[in-house]
Amino acid sequence: MSAFPALPGFGLIERPAERGANPSQTARAWADLMTAFDFELVMSR
Question: Long-range contacts of range 21-27, CB-CB < 8 Å, 24 or more positions apart?
Answer without folding.
Answer: none
